[in-house]
């Protein structure tokens, strides 16, 4: 592919990404992969160059652009030579007078008031940096020191005792340690959410929003003899846990939930769980480093819906925790209403519950919890709070 053809391919992919964000369709990574599956003539260098153009355009634009062309035009500010590719054979149509590039930005304007006070403008560039690849060592089967030298460019993560940090875009799915279940890909922030739970052997633990089970696996590695139930209402996500459990050599039960009947399905767990982890669906604002087009997907209406869902999940979790047991609430969000505000609302209704300090070294105190941010902690953005039900 010529440079002009690569630029045109980036525009076509970005048009698909923009449409997907409007329609709640597949993520940008999947769209890029599908695009090149249909164009086998493109070599690896072409695919890499086009992908880089696509994600550079996504990262520089906070508001959803009108078109892929306007998003790519925005790149000219940083790379003026791109203007020469417009009008070239197989390239984009020539630029027309009056065409406007997509505006540069880090955070959509409507979200500024929603951000935690800890996420000021000085931190905004870090929200879109390329994220490293963090691994969690399976503590039930290996030590971090024994694996540190097995991965190129690996360093120990600053806070999590289980973490290894690799350069961005490192591949691990073909590594022998991954195949043997000794490591899982997991951001250090996610590892710290599990450390905040302090899981113990012999406990009865519910991971209420388990998804594909990353945190359930970390709980099992930290407390191998705990009885762990991983639940979710999404069959496709939960089905991914089985092979991961087998590879890790863990013991985790699963339950596919059918809203609004969760408490009926979990009747034997009501007032019986030592620990309930609510890693709730959220805005995803803490993961913009990895999914920058998430800014284009989020709307005020969608944010209101996830906040209502978080409240409902906290209500369910409160029924499962036994007297003296603990509830840990986590969201990969930097928005106050999803974090500190959500826990304030919970405690306003349940004033007898006790707020406990999350036992992690990372983050900063934010209301009744702690907030980790990419700028301050070099992790994905996470809010975590730990609550104890009175005896």
| Topology, number of strands | 13
Helix share bin: 25-40%
CATH class of the largest domain, anyone?
Alpha Beta
**If you average the pLDDT, what whole number results?**
96
**Helix count, per DSSP?**
15
Large-scale geometry: globular
Give an overview in words.
Helices cover 35% and strands 16% of the residues. Strands 5, 6, 7, 8, 9, 10, 11, 12 and 13 form a nine-stranded mixed β-sheet that branches. Strands 2-3-1-4 form a four-stranded antiparallel β-sheet. By secondary structure, the chain is an alpha/beta fold. It starts with a helix and ends with a strand. It contains 15 helices and 13 strands. The chain is globular and about 70 Å long. The protein folds into three domains: 3-105; 133-185, Alpha-Beta Plaits, CATH 3.30.70; 188-388, Vaccinia Virus protein VP39 (Rossmann fold, 3-Layer(aba) Sandwich). Strand 2 (155-156) and strand 3 form a beta hairpin. The mean pLDDT is 96. Helix 1 (3-23) packs across helix 2 and helix 7 packs across helix 8 (214-222).
Write the topology of this structure.
Elements: H1 3-23, H2 28-37, H3 44-59, H4 68-73, E1 133-137, H5 144-147, E2 155-156, E3 163-166, H6 176-179, E4 183-185, H7 188-197, E5 204-207, H8 214-222, E6 227-232, H9 235-239, H10 241-248, E7 253-256, H11 262-265, E8 273-279, H12 294-297, H13 300-320, E9 321-331, H14 340-349, E10 354-356, E11 364-366, E12 369-372, H15 374-377, E13 382-388
Parallel strand pairs: 5-6, 5-8, 6-7, 8-9
Antiparallel strand pairs: 1-3, 1-4, 2-3, 9-13, 10-13, 11-12, 12-13
Helix pairs in contact: 1-2, 1-3, 7-8
